[in-house]
Amino acid sequence: MRLILFVAVASAFALVAACGGGRSVAPTSPAAVVATPAPPPVAVVPEVRSGETGAPVGSAVSSPAQVLPGAPVAVTAPGFLRRQQLFVGGTPIFLWPQEEAYVRAIVYAGGQFGLIRWSGGFRVKPWPGTEDKIAVVIAEASRVSGLSITMTTEPAEVEFILDPAEPVLADNALAVTFRTYSGLTITHSRIVFRSLGEFLGNNLKNGGRTNTALHEMGHVLGLSHSISYHDVMSNEDDRNPGLTYGSGEELALRMMYTYRMPGNAAPDRAPGVPTTTALRTPLSVVVD
Ligand SMILES: [Zn+2]
Q1: Are 96 and 104 in contact (CB under 8 A)?
Q2: Which residues contact 90 (CB under 8 A, 6 or more apart)?
């Protein structure tokens, strides 16, 4: 809607500009009106860089070795996911420097779903009385995603709610995150807790899990559950109990929000690359 409006405004402006003159200006030079044929596109060797360090990846192998702008290209290198995308001339290809099994679990909800993420920042409405704890969660989510995330008392894109009667929590789950999408872009989330003590750092469940609000915020950002207990997004009782995400989660979120689009497919295929694999939207309800 915003794009359409912008185009309409731009067109109106162009119309006014075109009507403002009245004089027709002759070309100053015959050379200016002779159409110069565009040079044919040239296939080049892609520039490949690490998404973590930005450094060139010398071991990268591109297929094809030289690629035309707009054409599909696949790039492999030890220690990185195989990247498939449409080539953009003059733009490096940034490789994802993580294990495939790890990324399939935490980014692609097991591998069969597309990458989901926000298109920009959002506002968070905390449950009254939990502002201090939610402020910690918001600061950490902002840090790892690079998004502008702010707290508000008004209705917001993301809302934390206390509701012991939430039916999804009937099986003793601590919390549930509901996500709403536009395509594979996250547009709203609602996090429902069963008790105030489980927001952040109060109640322990089996000796662990002191950071449930930060875990749910990971779901809000688009993460699924992690296979590493070093992570906040682990479902294990002895998972990372800290108030900052694990290094793997931080890197995954950086790749998602700096270098990848909604609808990227496992292990690392950009939207638009021809494929026979259908893309699925992740579940909108994540319990615990
Ligand atoms: Zn969870």
Answers
A1: no
A2: none
Interval between CA 214 and ligand 1 midpoint (Å):
10
The Å distance, Cα 157 to ligand 1 centre, comes to: 19
Q: Do the domain assignments include residue 103?
A: no
Contact 155, 266 (CB under 8 A): no
**Distance (Å) from CA 26 to ligand 1 centroid:** 67
Read off the pLDDT of residues 37-85 as tens digits, 9 standing for 90 and up.
Answer: 888 889 999 999 999 999 999 999 999 999 999 999 999 999 999 999 9
Q: In this structure, are 181 and 132 located in the same domain?
A: yes
Name the pTM for this structure.
0.84
| Torsion angle (degrees, nearest 10) of CA 89, 91, 98, 211 | -130
Asked if the structure places residue 116 within a domain, the reply is: no
Residue 189 exposed, middle or buried by CB count within 10 Å (0-12, 13-18, 19+): buried
Tell me, yes or no, whether 10 lies in a domain.
no
How many separate domains does the chain show?
A: 2
- Name residues whose C-beta falls within 8 Å of residue 23's C-beta, 6 or more positions apart in sequence: none
254 neighbors 272 (Cβ within 8 angstroms): no
How close is the Cα of 215 to the center of ligand 1, in Å?
A: 6
Quote the ligand 1 centre to 223 CA distance (angstroms).
9
**Residue 75, domain extent:** 48-97
- Whether 138 and 220 map to the same domain: the answer is yes
